[in-house]
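Exercise: predict the fold of this chain.
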Amino acid sequence: MSLVLASICPHPPIIIPTIGKENVTSAKKTIGAMEKMEREFRKSNPETVIVISPHGSLYPDAFSINFSESYVGHFHQFGDFVTNLKFQPDLEFLCRLKEKLEQKMPVVLVEDENLDHGSLVPLYYLTKNVVPKIVPIGYSLLDYETHLEFGRLIKEEISASKKRIAVIASGDLSHRLTPEAPAGYAPRAGIFDKRLVNFLKEKNIKGILEMDKDLIEEAGECGLRSFLILLGILEKINCQPKAYSYEAPFGVGYLVMNFQL
């Protein structure tokens, strides 16, 4: 197995210092956890990182794979004209993954050199000292079991590779935890976050699949499908989920979790 790191990371632009400024202190648990994850990332020294983001090209009935000769990232839409990131694709792995997935899954190939903030925020923290090649992937709106199967297929290609590969499942939990939350307040949003975090700690896939669909809808999450792809990759792999932090300083649930291999 060539998998060297597997993690869940949030993607709030406000934790980028040049964006959040004085507000970053409100998310100090998340920032501290991301700094800890960076140390693990550096230690694992991946050659390639698969980034699963909710905010790339989203298709209701197909997954997306972003092929580009290079990738760039900035936060201009959030008022940051200073931060600029650059990455190279792992074209060999991308081509092999494409061939594997197209045989069994609906997949759309996109070519966009501009990375979305769902990819960029985790990469900003994790690649400060190690800059691997990347494989950007977007989930679909297909059912949850299909996302698990998508992850299982990715695992086959990871297993066949001789490279050191990391996986980042980017996503936030409920966006409706407080009256000040960007998506408004939902009374049961906190219940969703608590249950999902506990299921992830237990690697309880069955529990996640059986969660109340109305509760999920009410929570207004964006990370669940990313997490299910990651769980498909990790299925039958001996790992220990370790939650580095969970907090919701702005009414959105931020989870940082390392599935220690």
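Check your answer against the key: The chain has one domain: 3-175+221-260.
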